[in-house]
Write a structure and sequence with these properties.
mainly alpha; two-stranded antiparallel sheet; 14 helices; globular
C-alpha cells in the first residue's frame, strides 16, 4: 500500500485538506442557495405574469423586458446611469490619483490629510445623500453664497438635458441634475481611490524612478512612462469597484433626490424598488433586477476572466 501511495502522490488528500473542505462546505451551500438560488428565482419571476398581489407564475416570455425597453422611465434610467457612471468613475480616478501623488511627496502632516480624505468613507450613502441635499438645495446651502455673485444653479431640480437628441421616447444627453448626485458620490468615494493609489505608489521601487531620472527623463516623464503604467492594475480595480457601485446605486439617490422631476435623477435601482414594493409589479421589478445584474456582469466577468488567465 505504501508503494502504491508513493506512485500516486497527487491522489492523496491530507487530513488538513479534508478539514478545510468541511469548513468550506456550509458557506458554499449558503452562497449556492441564498445568492445563486435567488438570482435564478428572480430570473424565473421576470419571465412570468406575476404583476399583482396574486401570484401568477404562468410563462410570459420576454414581455416584461420588452415593456421596460419601451418604457419612458426605464429609458431615462439607462441614460442617467450611463452619464452617472462615466462622470463618477472618471472623477474618482483623476481626483484619487492626483491626491495620492500629492500625499506621496512626503508632506508634513501626511496622516492628517490622509484621514481627512478617508473620513467620508466612514459615512453611509444615506447620510451623504441627506447632507448634500441640504448643501445643494436651490433655496439654501451653497446658493446662499453663490447668490452674492448672481449665480443660482438649480442643482438636482434642474430638468435641462445638455447636448440632447431624441432617442426612443426620451431626450438623450447629459442631465444637469445628475451632476449634483455625481458630486456627492465622488466626495464619498474619492478617499477609497486615494487609498488604493497611495498603496500602489508606495509599492513602486524608488530605484525604477531613479533609473529613469538618470536616463534623462523629466519628473513628468517619470510619472507618464514609469509610474502610471505600473499603477494600471490599481486603475483596473478602481474601475471595477466603482462601476459596480454606480450601476446598482440606490440609497444615495433615494435619500438625496428621489427619481427627480421628469426622472432626471432616476436610476434602475430606484425604479426597481418602487415597481416591486410600491406598485407590486413583481415580474417587472425582477426584470429590472436581472438587467442590472447583466450590466454589472459586463464589467465584472471580463475582469474575472483576465484575472483567471493571469493566475495560470
Amino acid at each position: 500500500m505504501e508503494n502504491q501511495a508513493q506512485r500516486n502522490p497527487k491522489r492523496r488528500i491530507s487530513k488538513d485538506h479534508w478539514t478545510a473542505i468541511a469548513f468550506l462546505i456550509p458557506s458554499f451551500i449558503l452562497i449556492l442557495v441564498f445568492v445563486y438560488g435567488f438570482i435564478g428565482w428572480t430570473g424565473y419571476v421576470s419571465l412570468s405574469n406575476y404583476n399583482s398581489l396574486v401570484p401568477d407564475f404562468s410563462f410570459a416570455g420576454l414581455k416584461n423586458y420588452i415593456y421596460l425597453f419601451n418604457d419612458f422611465r426605464f429609458q431615462a434610467d439607462l441614460r442617467n446611469t450611463v452619464f452617472f457612471t462615466i462622470l463618477f468613475i472618471g472623477l474618482v480616478i483623476v481626483l484619487g490619483m492626483g491626491l495620492a501623488i500629492l500625499i506621496d511627496q512626503k508632506l508634513k502632516g501626511e496622516s492628517i490629510f490622509r484621514n481627512i480624505f478617508l473620513f467620508p468613507m466612514a459615512l453611509s450613502f444615506i447620510v451623504t445623500g441627506v447632507v448634500w441635499q441640504w448643501l445643494l438645495n436651490p433655496s439654501t446651502g451653497f446658493n446662499q453664497f453663490l447668490s452674492v455673485f448672481g449665480i443660482q444653479p438649480k442643482w438636482y431640480t434642474d430638468t435641462t438635458i445638455l447636448a440632447g437628441f431624441e432617442w426612443g421616447s426620451i431626450e438623450f444627453g447629459l442631465p444637469v441634475a445628475i451632476i449634483a448626485v455625481v458630486i456627492a458620490a465622488v466626495w464619498q468615494m474619492t478617499g477609497f481611490s486615494l487609498a488604493m493609489y497611495l498603496a500602489g505608489l508606495r509599492g513602486i521601487p524608488e530605484e525604477l524612478r531613479e533609473a529613469a531620472r538618470m536616463d534623462g527623463a523629466s519628473e513628468f516623464q517619470v510619472y507618464l512612462k514609469v509610474v502610471l503604467p505600473m499603477l494600471m492594475p490599481i486603475t483596473m480595480s478602481v474601475v471595477i469597484i466603482m462601476a459596480h457601485i454606480s450601476l446598482k446605486i440606490f440609497d444615495l439617490i433615494y435619500a438625496m433626490t428621489g427619481s427627480g422631476a421628469n426622472f432626471v435623477t432616476d436610476v434602475p435601482g430606484v425604479y426597481m424598488f418602487e415597481t416591486t414594493f410600491r406598485g407590486n409589479y413583481y415580474a417587472n421589478g425582477a426584470a429590472i433586477a436581472i438587467i442590472m445584474l447583466l450590466l454589472v456582469a459586463i464589467f465584472i466577468v471580463p475582469y474575472l476572466w483576465s484575472s483567471r488567465k493571469g493566475d495560470k
